[in-house]
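Convert to structure. Protein one:
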Amino acid sequence: MIQTLPLALPGTLVDTHRIDLTAPYSKGWGVRTYDVAAAPNGDVYALHGVHRHTYGVADGEQDPATADFGYRIITRYSADGEVLAGAVCCPSRDEENGSAVVDGSDMTLCVLPDGTLSVSAHPDSTTLITPDLGRVLAAYDSKDRRPFEKFTPGDAFAGSISVTPSGRLLCVTTEYGVWNYGNLLANVVGLADGALTPASKPVIEAIASLDPSPNRHSDDDLRSHIRYQGGRVGLAHRPRPALTELLDGEDRLSGWRDSRLGRPVPLADDLFVVPVYARTFRGGSRGQPFVFALVDDRGTMTGRLHGMHAWRDSPFTGFCFNLAADPHRGRAFHLNRYGLYAWNRAGALRAKLDTGTKTFKPLTHFTLAACSPAGDLLLVHNKQHLILRVPAPDDLTDLAPAVEQALRTYAKQRTALKKQWSPVNWHWVHTSAVHHL
């Protein structure tokens, strides 16, 4: 079923901070979507944020109508598209009350096999929340490591999590000193076969790495829950050859130095797509190499997703780095400024919807967020703050008419939502009760 869901701001926040919804983002405020996830029962969770930072406002400003602020917002929708619950977390300025949700960059969502919602953040922090968003069950906080500061290791888990059809957890973890940087960067892909619960976390078995030899490691960088061939990952011990070693020669400009690891997605229980992107440049990075590698659960690179041209199909334009997958049917999807791409389990490109055509040009305004367990694509409109659910057909050669129909339906449902919600500059506001986590 094609659905359009509004990414709504809590009315209490809008009123408390007197947010001017008519003001352009150049005035110092903004709304941003971080991730969307779907549960097997059809529920959808969205994580987005709102912030304001105005020039000339003192750090100690007490008037909420004037003071700077920042919040993460989690919204739960029913299978019918109704807003069921909302929660606010991670306030940027309320140190006194704080939040039970661990804050960080690159925040992502995942619905675990038992229905618990996990919120992961860089570096390797994971918070577990009840499905109804009522309370935080547990928080695994990694405690960020910074150069020239005393480091006390925290209780980390993973920077991102995805679930395979049998319930295995596909994770990304960080390491210090990747490409000689003095901070933590995503570097290891691993699998956890046990359950992640408030009482215990499973061991993550590393299967792939990006930088084969991060610098300046010490015993503090060894984590007991991340293993490779029986030993803790860290120092000189991690999966080798690294992905960048397997791809040696394809990045002739930088040799994959300063490359980055994207969020992997499961293509099956034992096969995963691991994206690797070469370094970016200030003057533009279109044409830089990238690889969507196929890696099995033993860490073997078995192939890649084929059919994309480094220049004509570059994900670096607009930094469109997301992948989504339907592991139940063995499909992978990618959306960037040049098209929507779909592959089968073998890595063969089965469909490309060219955004240079009039029919699919509207896709340039969307970001691919996720695939639901039923195989539906979840797209987020970057300016209109709406989620579009697109049912994917059984035959990928029928993807074009399915997406064309979804875009036509989106326009109709958007008009109906405007009459119902009366948004201001495409900012949707709901008056339902929202609590702080």
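Protein two, convert as well:
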Amino acid sequence: MTSGYGLSNWAGAHPNIVAISEPGTALGPGRKPVLRAIATLDARTDGQNEADSYAHVRYGDEPVGCDNRPSPSLTEALSELTRTSGSLHGYLDSRMTRPAALGDDLFVVPVFGKTYRSTNRGQEFSFVLVDDRGVLKGRLGGLHLCEDSPFTGFDFTVVADPYRARAFHLNRYGLYAWSADGVLRARISTAEKPFKPLVHFALLECTPAGELVLAHRKQHLLLRVPVPQDLNDLAGTVEEALKGYRRERTALKRQYAPVNWLWPDSAATLNHL
């Protein structure tokens, strides 16, 4: 995900381009690999000029900028798909967060509609499936705009397991799991007693081993949740992981005596680079 200047009437830079690098390239000090743009969020670039482009972010043979960009934009495609063009609750002035790779040729791009000062629950959002040519292949399905809204708490993160072609999302209402075809395979509601503690966690990543990594928002601890092969069994493994978290947290409190959930360790060494 890369940013762009001169979009619509916004000031500053905003995330706007989904791009991929070529196999074998790596980011390093003083080195920016060429990124191939595959999708644009917002194509309203009348305010852009050549100075607003990045030489390493390219579409075709030229840097992305002005009219040289993937088309149609995700905003346009989603407005048509959801029939919300012209609606205050549509995708005009929408934003996106970090894409997740479901494979070498399929990605999930979280896109959410314009936010307002009042409640945004019920506002449009989509976890868009985009292939490596920028073609919109659909959305992660099974979510209700109100009952599953990520606007409560602004939890829009989606993580993916490209080795097993699965995607996951956690917000204040539940933990969700999909297969690569966008079909919802598991929904674990935080309204159910065993899973209420999930509202205190943020979803960080999915490891190569297929584990979900969650971070407690206040206690500064990480929780790893193994994901079973059969996603119908996910609720059981999450429940066990939450029970184990409470046990391990108690043991850590005895060992470290945290103050305001800060964990001092006088035996730790600091390595200077």
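Helices lie at 74-82, 234-256. The chain has a mean pLDDT of 91.
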